[in-house]
Design goal:
About 40% of the residues lie in helices and about 10% in strands. It is mainly alpha-helical. It has a domain of about 60 residues: Orthogonal Bundle (Arc Repressor Mutant, subunit A).
Length: about 100
Amino acid sequence: MKSVPHVLNFSSMDVDRFDPTPIYQQVARAIRTRIESGDLKPRDPVPSESQMVADYGVARATARHAVALLRSEGWVVTLPQRGTFVSDSPGTPPST
């Protein structure tokens, strides 16, 4: 029986499974860092849940939780049927 070699996804290095910080917060931090560095600019789409699952090796619920955190902090906005985008004023929490 032939074994299939395990392929390591190097971008998942942003997630440290031994770090006590919850994984959804680590994923949110990685995206927040991309926004702060200018890699993602206002109105740019953020990675989809499917892309986060592939990039970070996390469950879809974890990706969804990371986006919810970023939304609550004002980093991103989600438009129904369109996707999630970097906020026009990233890091400014939405008014309630």
